[in-house]
Hints:
By secondary structure, the protein is α/β, with parallel strands linked by helices. Helix content is 41%, strand content 16%.
Amino acid sequence: MYRQAVQPTRISPVTLSKLAKLGIHHRTDLLLHLPLRYEDETHLAPIATVQPGMNVQVQGVIAHREVVFRPRRTLVCRLQDGGGELYLRFLNFYPSQQKQLAEGRQIRAVGEVRMGYYGLEMVHPKCRAVDDDTPLRQSLTPVYPTTAGLSQAVLRKLIANALDTLPLDDTLPDALLRRMKLAAFADSVRLLHNPPPDISVASLEQRSHAAWRRIKFDELLAQQLSMRVHHRERSKRTAPKLAPQHRLTAQLMKDLPFALTNAQQKVYAEISRDLAQPHPMQRLLLGDVGSGKTVVAALAALQAIESGYQAALMAPTEILAEQHFLKLRDWFAPLGIAPVWLSGSLKKKEKQAAAERIASGETLLAIGTHALFQEQVSFHRLGLAIVDEQHKFGVQQRLALRNKGKSSQSVRGEPVEPQLPQDDALRQAQGERPINVHEPHQLMMSATPIPRTLAMSYYADLDVSVIDELPPGRTPVVTKLVSDTRRDEVFARVRTSCLEGRQAYWVCPLIDESEALQLQTVLETFQLLTQTFPELRIGLVHGKLDNAEKARVMAAFKAGELQLLVATTVIEVGVDVPNASLMVIDHAERMGLAQLHQLRGRVGRGAVQSLCILLYQQPLSELARARLKVVFESNDGFAIAQQDMRLRGPGELLGARQSGVAMLRFADISADEDLLNQARQAVDDLLRDFPEAARGHLQRWMANRHDYLHA
Length: 711
Ligand code: ADP
Ligand code: MG
């Protein structure tokens, strides 16, 4: 057996939840949690030989220790090894650390050397007290990707234990490994977790070492296998043929006040072609914020409707869903189509009435939040389900949606836990036929601007369309980084802008730990801004507001009755108010890159020059500084996504709300094309001659990712 759950009796629930954040759900996932880099603690560098920029381990005696208070409270220790001396500096330190670094103590310090105020120094080195005969490490020390609150030491222990106790059997047949000149799996993972001291560190860092090649091959192979399996499986499923009639769609295009961009036409053509097939479309439409995805969705919906089927559009927030409802209601009114609105905030009676109209088939288009796909709502003939900002939805919600269109016998038969994709393929290989039911086509939309290749490999069973151009007439948003100490200037800016007839957003900081605190912050900010700008009409939206109130405020802002909108990140997705041209993001250092870009996308939607002010508070962490720099320098969502991936790895890129890790963590499709080709070659052989090996391989690599593959 390749998989075993992470042993909950021995690992605390807190640690388990941290591990889950890293995509580690099973003990075997620990094996594949590979180091980002290594620290060399296998030998000591004489201090006299070290130079700025070097990452080294030094050993010496603390000759002097003091806490200085200017410019900031700092612990400074002078370390001497006989040949030279070096300063160790700690900006934040615990009493225990201070005690450890007592004068006269012998210390080993690992870190990067730089030239400081006093001379050579290490800032926040990793230190431990040692004796003359404390042995050096025998292998390079792995540094793992981790998350706040999970230490390297804990990760290392868990991983070492997994390496010692789990079977590391090869999933692939010997013949294949020989033919492809690949290293054994067991040797490869062992080496990557504990590289011997004499290894070429460059070959590890560049991931060109044979061990890395094996891991990357395995990963690409798993990806190819799962794509193949899904493709087969999808072509066995059936969906209504929604051939284009060019009636309603043509009418809408004629009525629109703008012409579709080339990119919009291209993606609509791709969608239109898929909808006409008797197999379910599962297509992801990617387009940067403001690229105009809504109208594409509207056209797709019309194509379903003109073929006699229903369409549904689901959005993750009430605000966004309502905005879609209003827009599509206007667009579709001349076509004689009145969408029905369904959200959790409706009264029970209204909900029932809406559900009845959906069930009877009287309603051709339903728009709403995830309430659309709850138990009570059943569609008469759902042909197309559209999910906007799909990365904001959980896997379960997306599954619920897909199941809506199926006939009742299949809904009953649907496993609560989706089956592993490979099981389907194997069942088919054994001659069993899947249940034959219609299911709706699915169009998922996201502004998470991920590179296309990444998207394709991440969502293995999705086809991907990309809108890669913005509608004409947009003026790029100017972004400014402003320190919190200059808040007054920002106030002045907001005032002028609003008094000149434009509108502004003030986005309050994200407070992860506590919703109550977040609410308090937004209320306080609202109060402060109301006092600061008695002459402005100011609105407030946040997640705790009841829905009618939220809708009222948004409508007032949209209509221009409110000049300034104080909001939490509920406005992050989708909100479209072209007259808003100033966005202030408070505590921008707390937000992720994708989020900052999405928020900024709320402005720059009209012809006037828009400004986005990123207010930040010192001190900035290294990561926060890097993030702000990226948003400051680029307006291009795809470029930002690429940087984001570099900064945090692809796993988190697709939204914190999705647990799990991107399918390609190790291989790089552009750099590892040769491996990808090898993997492609291997897939057919494997599926034909070694189905058991294929199953084992998928299980090792994908078991906790099958949700994505299905959703
Ligand atoms: P997003 O891709 O972020 O969902 P929207 O669909 O909300 O973008 O579109 C952003 C704005 O651009 C909307 O006001 C929309 O009406 C407008 N728009 C969409 N397509 C075009 C186009 N081809 N030409 C001009 N404006 C367009
Ligand atoms: Mg949108």
